[in-house]
Write a structure and sequence with these properties.
The protein has 4 helices and 9 strands. A 5-stranded antiparallel sheet has the order 1-2-9-4-7. A 4-stranded antiparallel sheet has the order 3-8-5-6, with no helix packed on it. Strand 5 and strand 6 form a beta hairpin. The chain has one domain: Sandwich (Jelly Rolls). The termini are far apart. With 164 residues, it is α+β, with helices and mostly antiparallel strands.
Length: 164
Amino acid sequence: MDKECVFNGGENLLLEKIKKVFLFKDLSEDEIIKISPLGEIVTFSEGEKLFNEGDVGDAFYIILKGQIRISKFIKGVGEEALAILEEGDYLGEMALICDFPRSATAIAHTDSKLLKIKRENFEKILKDVEISYKILWNLNYILSTRLRETNEKIKSLILILLQQ
């Protein structure tokens, strides 16, 4: 993993990419500029792990370039890919609110460049009341949506099991 300063050329492109992330969609350009220095650009080579299932979550990532594979490793079976995330997608948002272990492993599916925001920097962002309101409202929406999706999947699995 290589690191570089967030504002190392291409500022406008970075701002545009951050604006497209649902978590930050309601922020003004000035607010994005204000929070951007709290992140760092990191690069991963194909096959390199961002983090492992079970690691303590300490950062949130926005994919600026490349693809990230989210996988579970099943004993006796091997890697089971759950999703392949693309440019503009994000991962690790749960690490922003709790320090529970990661629920899956993240691997660079291709050479990738990401914006990494550590939890302690996210907490600095939340000290600005206007910014925190916008971000936390969107985070609440994301988590609520995922909970509904999970409930539907559980319901479907129960129905399948009951039919057997």
